Structure formats: structure tokens, C-alpha cells
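new request in #modeling-help
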Amino acid sequence: MTATEFDWAAVVAPSELPDVTDDPMSYERVVMNPGATWDYFAGHYDPEYARAVGQPTIFVNTMHVAGFVDRVVTEWAGPFSRVVRRKVSLMASIYAGDTITGRRRITGKRRAGDRWLIDMHVDVVNQRGELCCPADVTLDVSKAVER
Amino acid sequence: MNPPLSYEFVFGTYEDALKMVGYRSEPRVAATVVSGARIQMFAATVRDPNPGYWDRNFAERTWGGLIAPPAMLMGWLIPPPWEPTGRPPVPSIAVRIPLPGTSFVNASNEAEFLDPIREGDRLTVVEEVVSVSPEKTTRLGTGHFVETLETYRRDDGIPVATNRNTLFRFTPAEQA
């Protein structure tokens, strides 16, 4: 599927999509997030603080996890899609030095009023295969369908 | 180990915290408008090539302007780490609830995006304390789960998003 075509009829629910593995979570990327979001909680930039509160090193914030989830669903549906709902559970932290993968599946497709919606589930796992953040997302693909 | 001012916690007992359940804050206005520079810094962080964040022409044609990544929502209301007036930044209500915990981690977050947030929008938030759990012990330590609900509005008063967040305010196990 490319940015210019979206075939509603071809969307199969439920179905699995290929995994997306992110670039490694460097220290630089962990602190880029406060640069963008101004979330200067010490756990996101100070390894000494992180260790003092029982974490091995600095970890990404919720906005970063949510941003990765949004990215891997909209990369699939294309830039005319929009996230309208997202629930993320933070079961385990994602640390500097980790590499995360998004395991995506389509869980439903439905009409709501005049909108065309797709429900998806994304499991964000780390390099050891541990489930860090399961997420449920609803995408509005009306603009993509009606183009 | 000194967290910066913006995360200075208010301390108290569980009974103190329960008195805040149902509390609804005055509207708090973002210090700055939604900006392309921060949108692109965030998109670079999460490696998101979505043209809605990067391509002004595409974004204008499709959404009426560059759009903010939905995941940045909470960030627009975080005050800058320093201000010339010296006014202490107002932290999120979740850390202003009086509780014994000396740290926190986020537990879950559910957001709804009613309308796209665009470059130039100035957001206002109203925060509500939904619930504070009895004391719980997890592998991190002992503390309380705090659920809050935020409603974000644009300058014209139109609600653009709601955000239900649960965090675990705790004292690390080795300090207890």
C-alpha cells in the first residue's frame, strides 16, 4: 500500500502485519525527547538519578512510546490516516541501549457515523522479547478511503 | 538526587490525597504555541517520516497546516524549564497530589484525539483528579496509583483531545 492508495476492501481483520524494529535507543534519542516535549523528569536524562530510584539507567517517557506506536500504525495506513484513540499500558520501561520492535495486528474495521475506522493492536517488545507496552489504537482512515 | 523544580512533589498521607479526588483545576494555558520546530524534533526522535509533520505543502493541503504528532499532547502543557520572570513552573496535577512517594512511573495512558492539533494552536488544559488507589506494592516499591483526566482545548474553545493517565507514585524499595 502506498501513500496514494488505500483499499478499504483489502483490509483483513483480524490479520497480522510485518514487525517494525526501531533504530537502537541511544542516549541521544532518550534526551532528544525532553528537547521536543520539555519533559525534563530526571529519569529521562540523568543515569545517576535513574539508578537511585531503582532503574538501571535513563528510560524513555510515555510520549516516546506513544510516538513509536503512532508511527508504526500510520506508516502502514499512510499519511492520510490519523490516530483518534490510543491506549498504552506501561508494563516495563524502555532504557537507553534497548532496541524495540512493534508487533502489529489489525483487530477490526468498522464504520462509525460517516467515519471509516480501523482498530489495531501493537505490542512493543524489547530486544529480549519482553513485552514492555501493549497498545490499542483506532485509526481514522476516512481521508484515505474517500480520496 | 534532586529532581528539578518542575517535578517537585507535594508530600502528604493517603487521606490527604483522597481529599483531592474530584478536584478540577482552573484552565492552564500553554506557555508557547504549537511549533514546527518541536513537531520535527519529536518526529526525529521517534523516526517518523509522516509528511504531515515535515512537508508544509502536503500538511497544508491535507490537514490545514503542519500537525502535531498526537503522542506529543502532554508536552504542549509542560512549562519551559526556566522562565525570565522566575515564576516557578506549575507541574502536572498528578505530582501535586499529597502522597508519601518520592518518585513516580507512568502506568497507563488513554488519549482521544477529536480534531487535529496544528502548528500555531495554543492549547489550554483542565485537569481532574479521578482516583487515588489504596497502598500497593510493586517490584519498584510501595505507593499509590493516581488517575487523572485532562481535557485540551484550542484557543477557540473547541476541545481537541482528552487524556486519561494513571501513574504510580512510589517510594523505591531500597529506600522504604
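bot summary: Chain A touches chain B at residues 3, 22-23, 29, 32-33, 35-43, 48-49, 52-54, 61-64, 66-71, 74-75, 79-80, 82-90, 93, 143 (CB under 8 Å).
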